[in-house]
Amino acid sequence: MSALNKLMTQGIIPPQVHGVLDYPLAAILIAGPLVLDFDDRAATVIALVFGAGAAILAVGTNWSTGIVRVIPPILHGYADIGVTLALIVLPFAVGFTGETTALVFYEVVGVGGLLATLATRFESRLPAPRMMVREGM
Question: By three-state DSSP, how is residue 3 classified?
Answer without folding.
Answer: helix
